[in-house]
């Protein structure tokens, strides 16, 4: 099940330092960021094995999550917030502000066979076909 963390942050007159450590299992294998997405949905999948941590470094975005049992929508609007997605968490990121930069940290390299694109059948977002195939 997805979990929202508050990352350890040190604030001083010379700037803020936010630390990302001990958040996802394993070793960090892949880091990427999404920007310029506007209102377009991204993702629309879950994984067999991969864990991901999402941090909106600038601006804001929304993350819909469904693990087969529980559905939640998270609003990421501060670089100290970190949403950790477990492999079973089918998710969609959308409603990006114009200045949003969403950092994604993963414990696995990209593997097309690790992706599951079909949403859970009891998803409330299942009736939004433009989101079902969002990638």
UniProtKB/TrEMBL annotation:
**Residues annotated as domain Sugar 3,4-ketoisomerase QdtA cupin:** 3-118
The record's annotation in Pfam families points to:
FdtA
Protein name per the record: FdtA/QdtA family cupin domain-containing protein
């Amino acid at each position: 099940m997805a979990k929202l963390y508050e990352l350890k942050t040190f604030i001083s007159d010379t700037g803020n330092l936010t630390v990302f450590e001990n958040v996802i299992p394993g070793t960090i294998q892949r880091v990427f960021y999404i920007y310029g997405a506007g209102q377009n949905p991204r993702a629309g999948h879950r994984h067999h094995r991969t864990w991901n941590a999402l941090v909106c470094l600038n601006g804001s975005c929304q993350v819909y999550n469904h693990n087969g049992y529980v559905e939640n929508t998270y609003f990421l609007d501060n670089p100290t917030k970190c949403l950790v997605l477990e492999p079973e968490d089918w998710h969609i990121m959308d409603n990006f502000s114009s200045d949003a930069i969403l950092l994604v940290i993963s414990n696995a390299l990209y593997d097309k066979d690790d992706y599951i694109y079909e949403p859970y059948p009891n998803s409330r977002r299942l009736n939004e076909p433009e989101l079902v195939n969002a990638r």
